[in-house]
Design a protein that fits this description.
By secondary structure, the protein is of the alpha/beta class. It has helices at 12-31, 69-73, 91-100, 104-107, 124-130, 176-190, 249-275, 308-311, 337-344, 441-453, 472-475; strands at 45-50, 78-81, 84-85, 134-138, 156-158, 163-164, 172-173, 195-201, 226-227, 236-237, 282-287, 312-313, 315-318, 326-328, 332-333, 374-378, 382-387, 390-395, 418-421, 432-433. Strands 5-4-8-1-11-13-2-14 form an eight-stranded mixed sheet, sandwiched between helices. The two termini are 24 Å apart.
């Protein structure tokens, strides 16, 4: 049995009773003066995660006007977080962190399918289910297969994939329209309050090919990019992203925005459809990671670094009883999602969660621990920390020129240690390279301490696929 952060895991047989006891304790303390349950009972909760969504592609984060209008509108009745950071630039570890409030070095999930969420870790769905919530998940990316134990606490885990990718036909996904249809069909027949629903949309993950969209075209003045034989995106278009007749960066960025325009009305339809069935839910929308648009020489790819193009994601909250809009500029993390939803439900947050409840509209602020908070992001070969408005990232150790990235098929490339100041919406902040003596001493100290604390679990891999894991994921190369 694994130990995380010096806290012994609770055996599965005892955890349901422990979670119920935790909920009962929370109800007792609320009766003594804390926030009590709402008159109609605990609120419904909707968690939306969007695959590969750069925050700065949305209009409300400085992107092109009108892009993501319905997504941005969520914060009109709640809170927009300017700087939300994912703990990992890949889907599976980021989502595992979102659900469990642990960093990847603690939960051990990587993009490799030979890794899965340990059953001795508590998830947000398990806490809410133990407190009487009906729980359901609808995912659209095959790497989120329930065989990886991401279904912990979900009474329904719908992962029906309805279309193959253009360039990887064995990789099946689900579009936003079908995902929304599946959620609403279930809700009309089976949903009972209070409920917690998690929906993971695959759009705008590439290939950027939204249904019924204009096929796009290259500008005659735009320089062409080569189509790569691998999926790395370094210096060209990843092989899996290639679209017929398109070779310019401008054309692919336009198609990416078209993907968001396709997704946007389905987010609106999902929220309004669920609202129409009962009490409006508290809605939290975020993303698993970003996407490169030429940063560090990479195009239309993710997972290669911890650059801000990779780790900055949107985070927007709509209160169950919508309030006036608010903006929070302090950095937050995907590990804060689970504590926030549990706090909104009026429940105590498990003490071994790494995140903290966010200051969302509609709830009083919770006291923050003393001292400036450090937020971390992890990659197999890199690490990053944010303290206050300062970002610092570096490679974990020297990288050889010939090292192969076993996920993308490209090369692992060294990146300089660098810092940046996190500012208001607009262009991506400018990096400042650190000298040979390393980064800022205080940030280097926080980062080194974090890496040392998670060293025992970092890099741990399960030797076999979990029971029932689909073999087609092996064929896609998701083995490290």
């Amino acid at each position: 049995m694994r130990y995380i952060q010096g806290v012994p895991p609770v055996p599965r047989a005892d955890r349901a009773a422990a979670l119920v006891a935790c909920w009962l304790f929370g109800q007792f303390t609320c009766a003594l003066g804390c926030r009590g349950p709402e008159p109609d009972g605990p609120p419904n909760l909707l968690l939306i995660s969007v695959d590969t969504l750069r925050a700065d592609s949305l209009a409300c984060y400085g992107g092109e006007p009108g892009v993501g209008e319905a997504i941005c509108d969520l914060a009109d009745g709640g809170t927009r977080f300017e700087w939300a950071i994912t703990p990992a630039p890949y889907t599976a570890p980021a989502i595992a962190s979102m659900l469990s409030s642990r960093y990847p070095g603690e939960h051990g999930v990587t993009q490799s399918v030979v890794s899965y969420l340990p059953r001795d870790l508590t998830t947000v769905a398990e806490v809410l289910e133990a407190a009487g919530y009906q729980t359901a998940a609808f995912v659209s990316n095959p790497v989120l297969d329930k065989s990886r134990s991401l279904d912990q606490g979900f009474q329904v885990y719908d992962q029906h994939m309805n279309r193959p990718e253009r360039n990887r036909p064995r990789y099946r996904e689900r579009d936003a329209a079908s995902t929304t249809d599946a959620v609403l069909a279930w809700a009309r027949v089976a949903a009972r309050e209070p409920w917690f629903v998690w929906v993971h949309f695959q759009d705008p993950h590439g290939p950027y090919e939204p249904p019924d969209a204009d096929p796009g075209h290259d500008s005659p003045a735009a320089p062409p990019l080569a189509v790569l034989r691998d999926h790395s995106g370094f210096g060209g278009i990843p092989g899996y992203q290639a679209l017929p007749g398109l070779f310019s960066a401008d054309a692919y960025e336009q198609r990416y925005r078209d993907e968001i325009r396709y997704l946007d009305p389905h987010v609106k339809r999902l929220v309004e459809g669920l609202d129409a069935l009962g009490r409006p839910a508290g809605v939290l929308l975020t993303a698993d990671h970003g996407e490169a648009f030429g940063e560090d020489g990479y195009y239309f790819a993710h997972g290669h670094s911890l650059g801000l193009d990779q780790v900055r994601v949107p985070m927007l909250w709509r209160a169950p009883d919508p309030a006036g809009p608010a903006v929070e500029s302090a950095p937050v993390s995907l590990v804060d999602v689970a504590p926030t939803l549990i706090h909104v439900a009026g429940l105590p947050v498990p003490p071994d969660f790494r995140g903290r409840p966010l200051p969302v509209a509609g709830l009083p602020r919770t006291p923050s621990p003393a001292g400036e908070r450090a937020i971390f992001a992890e990659h197999e070969r890199r690490a990053a920390v944010i303290v206050g408005d300062t970002y610092y990232a570096r490679d974990r150790s020297p990288i050889r020129d010939d090292e192969v990235d076993r996920t993308s098929g490209g090369r692992v490339r060294a990146l300089p240690g660098r810092t940046a100041r996190l500012g208001p919406p607009g262009p991506m902040p400018t990096y400042t390279a650190v000298g040979p003596d390393g980064g800022p001493a205080a940030l280097e100290s926080r980062l080194s301490e974090f890496l040392e604390a998670t060293r025992a679990n970092r890099g741990a891999r399960h030797s076999e696929l979990p029971d029932g894991a689909p073999e087609h994921l092996r064929a896609l190369g998701y083995l490290e």
